[in-house]
Structure formats: C-alpha cells, structure tokens
C-alpha cells in the first residue's frame, strides 16, 4: 500500500483524476448500480501514463541519460513517449507489426524512436526489445511486470475508485499483462474485505484463465490477431502472483461481443473507447461477468483506436 501512496504523490498534478459516471443502461442489464471509471479520458488516452510517469520519474541520472527501451501494443508506448519527451529521456519503443496505426503515429509524433518488429504478437516483439536493451546497456521498461507499474497503473486507479464511489463492492477489470488488474486487485482487496474482482479477457488470448488452471503464470501465448491488442499475449508473473488469490471470476469475450460493447458506449454514453477497454462493458452486457449483487465499477481503460478500425466496428 505504501508504494501506491508513493505513486499517488508522484502523479499528483501530472495526470487527470478521471471521473466516474453512472451507466443507467448497464445498471438495467446487471440489475444493480453500475458505474464507469473513465480512464479513456486520461492524458495520452489510457491509464498507461500512470505507470510510465511513476517509473520514469524514479530513474537515476545515468539511466535517464542512456535512455530506455520498451515494448508496447500501443498505449504503453504512447504513454512512455509522452513522459520521456517531458522528462528529456531518450526512448526506443518496439511495437508488433500489426500495431494500431493511431497508436503508432501518436508514438512517432511524440518524438520516440519506434521499431516495428516482424512479429504480429506482443510476446515475440518483447523478446526483441529486451535483447536490444541488454545489448545496448539501457533499462528495459516493462509494460506490466513490475511492482511500480502495478502500484501506479492499478493501485492508484483503485484508490480513486474507492474514494469516489465508496458504495462499490464489485470491480470489473480488463486483463492483459496484469499491470492494471494486479495493482487494482491488491489495493481493493486490502482496503475492502469481501469485495469482488472480475477479470475480463479476449477468449482468443486467455492468459489469466489458463494461468489459474495451471497454477502458474502463462507468460507467453501464440500470436492472436484481434482489434483488442492490449489483451493479447501472456500475463506477467508479478501480476499473476497477486491475482491468483484475489480474482473472483474471469469473463472470456469474443471479438463480436467486444465490437457490440464499443458500439454500446458510443450509442448510450457518446464515448469512443478502444476494443481492449470495451471488454469490461461486454462482460456485463453478455452476463459473462456473472451475477452482480452489489454496486459495480467497470474500468474503461483507454480510447486509442484508429479510424479504419472504428469504421470496421461500426459496419459489423
């Protein structure tokens, strides 16, 4: 908990405290009050700026001078590029070959060096990025597998949610590498005994579900083509160690269900969100989040999505 407090102090005045908004339509679907934590309104378009700023602000003078290397499906890279530019830290960001074009262009515009890999999957691209960091003697900045990332990305969001929506006792979270969900679950379960945490994944890349079955983190999965690129790939060991005793259910969603949720948010809330963020809404709309018996907060993690993808979703 102390690391979350450190992260909150470091982030104060540097990021937005994003709002929580009631969703009457989701409340009707779930038969319980449902609220949206709108990290889609965050600077750089996602929650990822929280972890990026906290970690980069703690670098030594030598590491700042050498610069950092990271791997990203898009939103983490955009956040790192934004913070690195502000702090004067050289950043090299490796992205999968099929990275969302809006995210790719945004990273370039922020002045970072972008390396597009020959691989479509996140996990293979990360291996290349780690090898380059080791070769060049630069720090590799993980998108999710680090306690500081968990504290800032998930822990600070959980703290805000509990303060701003004190009646909530169920939390529906997207799960990719575990940086948001692991930190959120740790803070929430520590602060609110008896609360429930539901993780949401794409059925084509269910790293958390598989990890729970095996009893160990599935850190790598075969590449899977999806518009919800933030959910693709394995889960970090750090996040899974927390989630394995704190997750109360896992909802696995299809691409079509995620598209439906993106359209729902446009129609009912007039918010454009990215497919990776829509997974929590999809879990509630389909009932896959399970029976929600207490006031619920669904985290909407980002809005970074390219126009061609939006057109495809709307035409589906």
Architecture overview:
The protein is of the alpha/beta class and 316 residues long. It has 2 domains: 2-46 and 146-315, Rossmann fold (3-Layer(aba) Sandwich); 48-141, Rossmann fold, CATH 3.40.50.1100. It is 48% helix and 15% strand. The chain has 14 helices and 10 strands. Strands 1-2-10-7-8-9 form a 6-stranded mixed β-sheet, with helices on both faces. Helix 1 packs across helix 8 and helix 8 crosses helix 9. The longest helix is centred in the middle third of the chain and has 18 residues, at 147-164. It is globular. The mean pLDDT is 96.
Please render the helix and strand layout as text.
Blueprint: H1 2-11, E1 20-22, H2 24-30, E2 34-38, H3 48-57, H4 61-66, E3 68-71, H5 75-87, E4 91-95, H6 101-109, E5 113-116, H7 122-136, E6 139-141, H8 147-164, E7 170-174, H9 179-191, E8 196-202, H10 207-214, H11 237-243, E9 249-253, H12 255-269, H13 275-286, E10 296-300, H14 307-315
Parallel strand pairs: 2-10, 3-4, 3-6, 4-5, 7-8, 7-10, 8-9
Antiparallel strand pairs: 1-2
């Amino acid at each position: 908990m102390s690391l979350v407090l450190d992260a909150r102090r470091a982030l104060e005045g540097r990021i937005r405290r994003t709002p929580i908004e009631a969703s009457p339509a989701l409340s009707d679907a779930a038969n319980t009050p449902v609220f949206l934590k709108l990290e889609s309104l965050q600077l750089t378009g996602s929650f990822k700026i929280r972890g990026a700023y906290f970690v980069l602000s703690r670098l030594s003078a030598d590491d700042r001078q050498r610069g950092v290397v990271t791997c990203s499906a898009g939103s983490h890279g955009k956040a790192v590029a934004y913070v690195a530019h502000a702090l004067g830290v050289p950043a090299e960001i490796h992205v999968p070959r099929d990275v969302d074009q809006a995210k790719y262009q945004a990273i370039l515009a922020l002045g970072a060096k972008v390396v597009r890999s020959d691989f479509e999957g996140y996990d293979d691209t990360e291996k290349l990025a780690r090898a380059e960091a080791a070769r060049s003697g630069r720090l590799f900045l993980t998108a999710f597998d680090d306690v500081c990332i968990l504290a800032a990305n998930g822990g600070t969001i959980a703290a805000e949610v509990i303060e701003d929506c004190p009646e909530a006792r169920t939390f529906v979270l997207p799960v990719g590498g575990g940086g948001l969900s692991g930190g959120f679950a740790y803070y929430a379960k520590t602060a609110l005994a008896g609360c429930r945490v539901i993780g949401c994944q794409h059925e084509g890349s269910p790293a958390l579900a598989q990890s729970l079955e095996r009893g160990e983190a599935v850190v790598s999965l075969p590449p899977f083509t999806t518009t919800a690129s933030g959910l693709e790939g394995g889960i970090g060991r750090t996040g899974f160690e927390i989630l394995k005793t704190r997750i109360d259910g896992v909802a696995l969603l299809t691409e079509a269900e995620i598209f439906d949720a993106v359209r729902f948010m446009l129609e009912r809330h007039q918010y454009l969100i990215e497919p990776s963020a829509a997974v929590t809404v999809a879990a509630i709309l389909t009932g896959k989040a399970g029976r929600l018996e207490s006031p619920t907060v669904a985290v909407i993690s980002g809005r970074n999505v390219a126009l061609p993808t939006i057109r495809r979703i709307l035409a589906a």
